[in-house]
């Protein structure tokens, strides 16, 4: 079983956000995997998004001290962010880190890797990714999960297009105007 966190943070002097944090974590004691959970931020603004994530994870994983991201999808990466009464250093890399992964470090418990679901992802796809990222049999990298979700979405769209095409052919051949079939009795 996975834990889906519905956490509404209060960051700094601001009022609590009306939107809960979108985060799911593998269950405690789950076998080691490439991904420990999934995070679906609402924007690409790390300065606004990371404090709420750390505020939620600090009590679960110990004090988060460092976060590493790939520069690929983040327009601005702050050097540090305030979170849960302390400053968290934020680092980045263009090479060596999966662009769809966020790495969190804690002095107490070690390291966690979260799949980062792009903010613009459709809700159905994001929900599927969150479930897949915490599946006990998971073995894909963060980018592998994103690519798998894209293939699933494309296949679903192709199937919907195929159904639409069949309907259009049926209609063009008079199917929608055809009288119902007559039942005959022998």
UniProtKB/TrEMBL annotation:
<protein>
    <submittedName>
        <fullName>Uncharacterized protein</fullName>
    </submittedName>
</protein>
<dbReference type="Pfam" id="PF19457">
    <property type="entry name" value="DUF5994"/>
</dbReference>
<dbReference type="InterPro" id="IPR046036">
    <property type="entry name" value="DUF5994"/>
</dbReference>
<feature type="compositionally biased region" description="Basic and acidic residues">
    <location>
        <begin position="163"/>
        <end position="176"/>
    </location>
</feature>
<feature type="region of interest" description="Disordered">
    <location>
        <begin position="163"/>
        <end position="186"/>
    </location>
</feature>
């Amino acid at each position: 079983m996975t834990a889906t966190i519905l956490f509404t943070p209060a960051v700094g002097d601001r009022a609590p956000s009306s939107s809960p944090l979108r985060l799911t974590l593998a269950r405690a004691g789950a076998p080691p995997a490439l991904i420990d959970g999934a995070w679906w931020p609402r924007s690409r603004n790390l300065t606004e998004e990371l404090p709420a994530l750390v505020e939620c994870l600090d009590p679960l994983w110990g004090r988060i001290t460092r976060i590493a991201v790939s520069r690929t999808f983040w327009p601005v990466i702050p050097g540090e962010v305030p979170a849960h009464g302390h400053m968290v250093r934020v680092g980045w890399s263009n090479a060596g880190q999966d662009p769809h992964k966020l790495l969190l470090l804690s002095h107490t418990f070690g390291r966690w890797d979260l799949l980062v679901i792009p903010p613009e992802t459709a809700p159905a796809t994001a929900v599927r990714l969150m479930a897949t990222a915490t599946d006990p049999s998971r073995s894909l990298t963060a980018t592998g999960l994103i690519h798998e979700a894209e293939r699933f979405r494309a296949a679903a769209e192709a199937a919907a297009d195929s159904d639409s095409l069949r309907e259009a052919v049926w209609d063009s051949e008079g199917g929608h105007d055809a009288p119902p079939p007559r039942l005959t009795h022998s």
